[in-house]
Structures are given as C-alpha cells and as structure tokens.
Amino acid sequence: MSSFNETLSTLDTFVWGPLFLIPLLLGTGLLLTVRLRGLQFRTLFIALRHGLIDRNDQSGEGDISNYQALTTALAATVGVGNIVGVATAISVGGPGSLFWMWVTGLVGMASKYAEAFLGVRFRTTDSAGEQSGGPQYYLERGIKGPVGKILGISFTFFAIIASFGIGNLTQANAVATGMHDAFGIQPWISGVIMFVCLGAVLLGGVQAIGRVTSAFVPLMILIYVVGAIVVLCINAAKIPGALALVFTDAFTGTAAAGGFLGSGIILALQMGVARGIFSNESGMGSASIAAAAAKTSHPVRQGLVSMTQTFIDTIIVVSFTGLVIISTGTWDQGKQNAGTMTADAFSTALPGHWGGMIVSVSLIFFAFSTIIGWSYYGERCMERLFGRHGALPYRLIFTVVVFFGATTELETVWTLADLANGLMALPNLIGLLVLSGLVARETLAYLRFDPKLRASHEDVAAYVANENNGWK
Fold first, then answer.
1. Mean pLDDT along residues 353-365
2. How confident is the model at residue 78 (pLDDT cuts 50, 70, 90)?
3. CA distances (Å), 446 to each of 442, 459, 471, in order?
4. What does the alpha-carbon distance between residue 426 and residue 114 come to, in Å, rounded to a whole number?
5. Residue 467 belongs to a domain
6. What is the rounded CA–CA span in Å between residue 419 and residue 412?
7. What domain count does the chain have?
8. Ranked by mean pLDDT, which of 259-273, 383-397, 401-415 comes out on top?
9. Dihedral sign computed on CA atoms, order 10, 13, 15, 20
10. What angle do CA 300, 305, 310 make, to 5 degrees?
C-alpha cells in the first residue's frame, strides 16, 4: 500500500508540477484573456449586476435560473480549499503563494467564462427534457472527429472519479471533523446526518439542488467573510505588512521562520496555482455543467455570470482567508499545522471560542455544499456514459459513500482526488485552446450587439436568427 501511495504522490507531483499542468492552466487563461480582450476586467461589474441583481434571465430554455446555476457552481467550489487549501499553500509555499492564487483567479476568470460559454453553446436536451452540457458534450460536439470524442470521454471518466474524491469523500471527512471540533459530535453520527440530508436533496434533482444552494450559499459566504473582516479590522495595522509579504515573497521566496521551512519562487508558484485551481476549479470544466442547466437567452450571458464565480471564490473568499492567516502571524506554524491554521488565526483576534467556532461551522457548510454541487456534476457525467438510467444508481452510491467519507481516514483519497482534478482538467484545457477562436469570435460579436446585457428576449432572438451559427 505504501508503494501505491508513493506512486500516486509521484504522479500527482508531476501533473501539478511546474513543467506540466501549471503552465498549461496559466497559458490557457492568458491566451483566452488576450483573445477575449481582457473580458474579465472590462465586463466584471456588468456580469456581477446581471448575475446577482438582475438574477433571473427567464427568457431562454433551461432548468434553473442563471443565479441558481451560479450558486450551484459556487456550492461546488467554495469548500475546503477556501479554508484548509489556502492554509496549506501558505504553509508550504509561503505568503507569496497567495499572490499566485490571485493570478490564477484573474486569468482563470477567462477560462471559466469560456467553458461556461461552451457548456451552454453546445448543450443538449436529454431524454427527460432537461438541459445537459459541459466538457463531456462540447469537447465532442465542438471538436469533430475522434480527437473530440476521446477528449470528451476522458473528461467524463476523470470527472466521475473526481466527484467521489474532491466532491464527496474528502468533503464528508471535513464535515465530520468540523462537527466533532465544534460540537463534539461523533463522525458516524455526522455520516448519518449527511446521508439523510444529501439523499433528500438529490431526490429532487437539479431544481432542488438549485433551490437549496441559492438559499444557503450566499449566507454561508457572508458569515465567513464577516468574521474575517472583524479579524482584519482588529489587526488593521498589520495588513500593509501582510500585503508587502505577499508581493515580495512571490518573487523572492520566503526565508525559514518558526515552523516554516522556507520556500523558493517555484514552490510558491506551484502551491499557489495548484491550491488556487483546487479552490476555484477554473480550467477544470466542472462549473460549465451547472451553467448548461441555466435559463438564458444567449451563451455569452451565462458565461459572464459564471465568470463571477471565480471572482467571488478567489478574489474575495480566498483573499480574506490568506490575509487573516498572514496578518495574524500564524502562517509560519509549518505544514503539519495547516489543518488548524485558519482557526488559530481567527482565534487570535476573536474572544473565547468564537474564532474556532466560525471556522468550524463555515467548514461544515462549505464542505457539504461542495458535496451537493459535485453530486450534480458526477450525475451528469454518468448520464453521458450510460444514459438517463445511470442517474439513480449514481445518486444511491454517491449518498452511501458520504457516510464512509465521514468515518474513514483519507490520506490516499486526498492524493487521488488531487490527481483526478489534474487529469480532468487536461482534456478540457486542450479543448479550450482548440475552441478559443470560436469563443472569442462569438463573444465579441454578441457584446458589440448587447454590451450592457440589457437586450430584450425578442432582440436577442432576432440577433441569434440573424447570426445563424447553430445556437438556438
């Protein structure tokens, strides 16, 4: 078993190393940023308004609102990575890792836009009359021939594995740990509670998932961010120094201090990008599965709404976690303390057990929401391979597995989940590069027609008919 773990760890290190996936992820995001003319910077406020204030673009086909699609994707991405993942990156790569997480988030917004655009652009209607899309469809339908088919099947296979790893076992374990730390509840009891709650949600399908996530995802993010703001206000005098560390250490490396062993620039970059992708999933293609279910009158509209998910996840939530850890001085405790580092940081500023309680409760909600979001991703991929009748067996197995995640040690599963993430991203990134011309051409054309996303359904329908590019 130890040799198997070592092999997995070696493969994981290579896939997420500085010579393979990291340059491909950053390179794809940069290329899309250039081809889309800095879309994520030019249209960010328009996209936030359309997704969070306008909310419902009910004029197009789809199963859930664009806001519910956004919160479903946020449910899957705002998870353990936003708390433990950030702490792990900083504990290994130093404060400079936070800078590279920001870079990953900013260029990743272009990747997230492109994959959500393609998810809607090439979505199809399944046998139950629901919209289904994502890399498992757009890779094959957008890239003709055997190459597209191989890429699509590869993504589907690795996404199913990832759904049980990053999307279930590891998250369930985090929930059980949080329940025990915060309330003294035994892991098997947490497993039973999650089994019942998850089963109840999954029985209702994507509509139930959309209703649940739209209700509690904004609340859970708000509670965590407010707690972080209080900590930062108390340590306001240390914020300039923390920011200086982030920027200087990103390009010079970090000297050994306390329990921190020191790191170079490459390690800071590697940890920042790897944990950044683990947190926001940009380039992995998973969020486009939720985007494809949205009611929208045009792929550009949902692409822009989905793009804001990366901004909220990384530029907001991850930033608060990182700055709290660095400004409170808990970042140098060493990798072995990464699991409790964020709670320790909150506890240094908040009275009594409030700091640890906020982090534990946030971890519970973040992790459980990730389970809900990934259940939908995995189910859609199962349907792609086995048809609609593959959905129910997947739901049953997925619900049972959550109990084992709560009650089992998962060192090997964490490594396998990380590896599956990388292998899942690879075919999607190749597809984004191949289809980048189509994405840029149709996006820029639509934004010339409707730059503020204010066009009526009738005007958009007339525009689509005039373009005649295959989108309906």
1. 87
2. confident
3. 6, 12, 12
4. 15
5. no
6. 11
7. 1
8. 383-397
9. negative
10. 120
Instruction: Specify if 460 maps to a domain.
Output: no
Name the DSSP class of 311: I
For the purposes of burial, counting CB atoms within 10 Å of the CB of 216, is it exposed (0-12), middle (13-18) or buried (19 or more)? Answer: middle
- φ, ψ for residue 281 (rounded to 5)? 60, 20
Q: Rounded to a whole number, what is the distance in angstroms from the first to the last CA of the chain?
A: 52
- Per the CB < 8 A criterion, the answer to whether 56 and 353 are in contact is no
Question: What is the pTM for the complete model shown?
Answer: 0.93
Please name the residue that has the structure tokens 């289904």. 132
Half-sphere exposure of 332 (CA within 13 A, CB side): 13
CATH number where 91 lies: 1.20.1740
Residues near 59 by Cβ (< 8 Å), separated by ≥ 6? 295, 296, 297, 456, 457, 460
pLDDT tens digits for 101-136? 999 999 999 999 999 999 999 999 887 788 899 999
Query: Per the domain annotation, does 153 fall within a domain?
Result: yes
Average pLDDT, stretch 42-63? 80
Task: Tell me the two tokens of residue 53.
Answer: 């204030």
List strand residue ranges (DSSP E) for 114-261, in order.
124-125, 131-132
CA distances from 273 to 23, 350, 379 (A): 10, 30, 28
pLDDT over 80 (residue 1)? no
Strands (E), 88-141: 124-125, 131-132
Instruction: Tell me what pLDDT residue 430 has.
Output: 96
Domain of residue 100, residue span:
2-455
Range scoring the smallest mean pLDDT among 79-83, 226-230, 421-425: 79-83
Secondary structure letter of residue 124 according to DSSP: E
> From the CB of residue 467, how many other CB atoms can be counted at a distance below 10 Å?
14
In a domain, 469, yes or no: no
